Amino acid sequence: MDHTKPTVLSLFSGAGGMDLGLEAAGFGHVGVVEIDQTAAATLAHNRPDWTHLAGGDVLVAAQTLTPASVGMSPGELDLLAGGPPCQPFSLAAQWAATGRRGMEDTRAQTVHATMNLIRAFLPKAVLMENVLGFVQGQHSAISFLQSEFEAISKDTGHSYRLEWRLLNAADYGVPQNRRRVIVVAIRDDLSFEWPTPTHSTNPIRAWDAIGDLKNTSIPRSAGKWKGLLESIPAGTNYQWLTSKGGGDEVFGYRTRYWNFLLKLSPIEPSWTLSASPGPATGPFHWENRHLTIREQLRLQSFPDDWELLGDERQQVKQAGNATPSLLAEVLGLALLRSLGHDRSTSPTLALSRASTEPPRLAEPRSVRPEYRDLIGSKAAHAGTGRGPAPRATSESAQGIALSQTGRINA
Description:
By secondary structure, the chain is α/β, with parallel strands linked by helices. The chain has helices spanning 17-25, 37-46, 58-64, 109-121, 142-156, 206-210, 293-299, 312-321, 325-338, 394-398, and strands at residues 7-11, 28-33, 79-82, 125-130, 160-168, 179-187, 405-409.
């Protein structure tokens, strides 16, 4: 690698969304750690010069990887970056039989491993991306992170200031409403200033991002409900076909998950992409079909020369799990300023294509005959905390208010 560049060690690298953004900001990779073989193959295919470490296993890396093994000394690494698996902290996990367990979940061992690597490398900055439950709620990891950074400070003399914010990628030019927690830890006397939103009032629209693509291979829609997409307007979901919508009442109000038959609007940013969508899980294209892989990558602000390997399911997983590259670049530029590097603040991955008039969309069609026997009065969802959930957590039942920033000095 080019040692004249600020250095980054990437954990949980996935398909490279965060790494591409940090690379564009000016970081050079010490190495990447990614256990999924298909995602690791994607990285190797697109960036053959990136070094893959510890067989891709963060747990192994925590036991074997040292600064000396990558030609560095403790404290020399500029940035350690990555997003530990979100399932132990995800709100969606409460629908699973095992529910959301936070740091008690075996998958949270990756958080322990991350902190072990921070202790070993003593990077000048740490960047993590995760869901809100990672830092807030009774199952969050925030108290663990605080205690670990305090212990590192006590044992090494290097103090870390820990901050987090809930950011929407669309506010920074990504053509997708994607809200994720960003955790930043800064060492010693360094300071960090969060980037100012640039697109809060003028977001990049889905049409701006994917409207120019000429698709020769359109994914085939499948599943029981695919024929209802044409009866739902762009920018809405199945609730159009409930008592609260403008169409025929096929479903009970709020009795389905939000992205059920969810369609993009060409004049708004995309809804959040899913990594493991079912046949009826959106967002769907406004042309009543699944999004192509290239469209998904555009909505995640990947450059067009980036190629995903694997079958369609594996590619959808890689695209949906990725950190938007443009958001990572914006954060990377902010971190470079903290580290004393004078870099341009003009993003290079932005999908700032000239806005053109989106197509005139057809009015939603009447429900097809094969669904018409489903039309009729339906019971609505019983209310918050009373719905069909295997686990009704105290947070969701009480509807707690969620703050969007936090700071801890360790």
